[in-house]
Amino acid sequence: MKHLIIRTLLATALALPIYAANANEIGISPQDTQTLIKQSENVLFIDVRDPVEIMFIGFTDEVDLNIPYLMVDRSQWDTKKKRFRLYKNPDFISQIKAALTAQGLDESATIITMCRSGSERGLPSAQFLQENGFKNARYVINGFQGAKVKEGEKSGLRIKNGWQNAGLPWKAKPNPTKIYRTDR
């Protein structure tokens, strides 16, 4: 009886943190994203970076489409961040809905967003989608390019994780049929 109680308590203790972590976690690894998009037709994979950033960093044709979450306002400089101001794409939700419809999907589909590092646009875009009724929105942890190395000779370079550094398919130039464009 004592062993049964210990096993039950141990199983419960091990199960609770896993459940709690999964209940609040909307991140998905690049490798698991690749597996999911290959195995399920009920997934919409969106690159949420500004298209100019994609031109300089790279792109994966594994995404269904590029729909920027934050866009660059080249008419306003952010002195504090030392860059152009970013603003939320006012058509983000309607563009996501149109992409779902084009794929024959509905709002119950899994939507996975990916930015450069996962933090400034990836996670916020997935949270924004969830707040707007897309309960299965997730984001790629560490994004396309990954996190910066903090120490050593390669300090500051994004070479430690993310889609690109996981050896997943990517190329230097964007696909003109998938990149966000205002000319069509």
From TrEMBL:
One of its GO terms (molecular function) is transferase activity. Residues 39-156 form the Rhodanese domain. Gene3D superfamilies: Rhodanese-like domain. Pfam families: Rhodanese. Residues 1-23 form the signal peptide. It comes from the Bacteria. This is Sulfurtransferase.
